[in-house]
Amino acid sequence: PATLVEPEEVAAMVLDGLRRERFFIRAGRQESKAIYGGKITEEYFEWNEPIIRGRAEAQLADGRPDAYIW
Question: What are phi and psi of 55, to 5 degrees?
């Protein structure tokens, strides 16, 4: 699933993530409402959350982020 957003919207989310010192910057439900005006659908979150959860669990077990990040 894909959601089209403006570059300025993405930039706002990235800057917010940097200010919060987040390792991963990902649009969640709050960001969808606050930054994207609710453009990201519930279907997208239902599809994406198991993927993100699986990566997080793998990192906890392995003790390091995914190799593609480095």
Answer: -65, -45
Distance CA 31, CA 17 (A): 11
User: What digits encode the pLDDT tens for the residues 22-66?
Assistant: 877 777 888 788 777 888 888 989 998 888 888 778 777 776 666
Instruction: State the alpha helices, DSSP H only, in 1-70.
Output: 7-19, 29-34, 42-62
Taking the complete model, does pTM exceed 0.90, yes or no? no
Per-residue pLDDT at 68: 58
Rounded to whole angstroms, the Cα distance separating 40 from 59 reads: 26
How far is residue 50's CA from residue 23's CA, in Å, rounded to a whole number? 19
